[in-house]
Amino acid sequence: MIVVVDERELVTEGYNSLFDREGVACAGFAPDEFDAWVSSAPEADLKSVRAFLIGDCREGTVSPRQIRGRTGAPVIALSEQNSLENTLRLFESGVDDVVRKPVHIREILARIAAIRRRAEADATPWIQIGALRIFMDGRDPEIDGAPLPLPRRERRILEYLAANRGRRVTKTQVFNAIYGIFDEEVEENVVESHISKLRKKLRERLGQDPVDSKRFLGYRLIV
């Protein structure tokens, strides 16, 4: 999930729509709402956030260092001012990157992936599990070098399982990461349908099921 903070509701709604087209969950906050949420949100909710995008906010209303105190997710400033002074000010406030608008959603996702790769000591552009190669930048996975086309939700679930490889994640955690913690229009059980379809496709190509499922405990990608 991507969290966007901006004083203008029209802006947060616009990003929500654009990220949804890319199969990425997004939640929008006004600065005051965000401050209350980030200081009190459960750790499980914060773990579902891939990055924070800080847009037009009054100076001092959003603190990147406060965010950093609760989560290691990248913090990116979206700037409408094309000036060196403003860019330096934003970096000094603690953000990981400054992006000048207008910017394509895919560029934002690529920057997020790059920051996260650099933050990991053993960073690679992909995760290899046997014959299965899972990319973390939106590309379809490959099996023995051949692409495995997947719908965007199934691809995102596979990426999430890969990012948590070796650990079991609950259905709620998967849902929060893929649909966002504030999506009340989609039932959580939709995760079971997506994972069932994903496992069938993987099983057909790999000859085995790489996803271990335990009722009430969740899912784990077998490494």
UniProtKB/TrEMBL annotation:
One Gene Ontology term of the molecular function aspect: phosphorelay response regulator activity
DNA-binding in keyword set: yes
Keyword Transcription regulation annotated: yes
Protein name: Two-component system response regulator
GO biological process, one term: regulation of DNA-templated transcription
Domain Response regulatory: residue ranges: 1-116
Keywords associated with the record: DNA-binding, Transcription, Transcription regulation
Stored InterPro entries: CheY-like_superfamily (IPR011006), OmpR/PhoB-type_DNA-bd (IPR001867), Sig_transdc_resp-reg_C-effctor (IPR016032), Sig_transdc_resp-reg_receiver (IPR001789), WalR-like (IPR039420), WH-like_DNA-bd_sf (IPR036388)
SUPFAM superfamilies: C-terminal effector domain of the bipartite response regulators, CheY-like
PANTHER family the record matches: REGULATOR OF RPOS, TRANSCRIPTIONAL REGULATORY PROTEIN TCTD
A single cellular component GO annotation: protein-DNA complex
Domain OmpR/PhoB-type: residue ranges: 124-223
DNA-binding region: 124-223
